[in-house]
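JOB MANIFEST
job_type = single_chain_structure
chain_count = 1
residues = 223
[input]
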Amino acid sequence: MEHPARTLTARLLASRSLPRTDPQVRRALVDEAFRAELEARLAAVGLQLIDNPYAEHVAVALADDVHEPVFGAGREYAASNIGLTRDQIALLVIIWALIVLPKRERQVNRQKLIDDGQHDMFGQEAPLPHGEEVAGSLSEASLLADFAPVLGHKTYVQGKLLSRLAQLGFIERRGGLIFEGPLLDVLLDYRLLADRIIHGTLGEVLAQAGHPLPDSDGADEGL
C-alpha cells in the first residue's frame, strides 16, 4: 500500500522541486502531521524542506548541520555547493534581481489589495498570488547587451552561463525570453539578498544599465 509521506519524500529527492499545486505538496503545506512526518523523513537523511510561500515550488536542500560533513573542511564549496563558477553565480544573482524582486513587489501589492478587501470580501483566506498574474520575464538579448561585456562574450554567456542555469532549474529559456525556473525563488534567500542588492553596489550597477529595482521595504512581510 502506498505511503503518502514516503512517496512524496521519494518524489522530492528524484525531482529536487515540486510545484505547490501538486496534491501531495499542498497536503504537506496544510496538514501539520503530514508535514512533520515528511520533515522527519528528510531530516533522517540530512535534508530539509525549503518552502517560500511566495514561490511556486518547494524544494529540498541539505540541512545546515550537514554542510560540513558532506562537503568537507576544504571550503571548495564556499562559493557554490552545486559547482557553479563565479561568473555563473554573478549572472544568477543578476537574473534573480531582475525577475524575482519585481515579481515580489507585484505579489505584495496584490496581497495588500486582497487584505484590504478590494478584490474579495473573503480575501484574507485567499492564497498568496502566484502564476501568470505576477510572473515576469527578461529579454535574453537585453541581458546579453547589458552584461555580456563584463561576464565574457555573448557566445560564452549563452553557451556556458545561461545553459548551465537552465540545466540546474534556476531559469527557463523560451522564445528569446528568460523566465523564472522552479528553483530561482525558492533556493535563493530573499530576506538575505534583497536589501543587500537593492541598496548595494549591484543595485547601482543595474540602475545604470537601465534596470532600476523596487524598494525592499515591506517586500517580505509574512515570510
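[summary]
The chain has two domains: 4-71, 86-208.
The CA atoms of residues 46 and 67 lie 9 Å apart.
exit_status = 0
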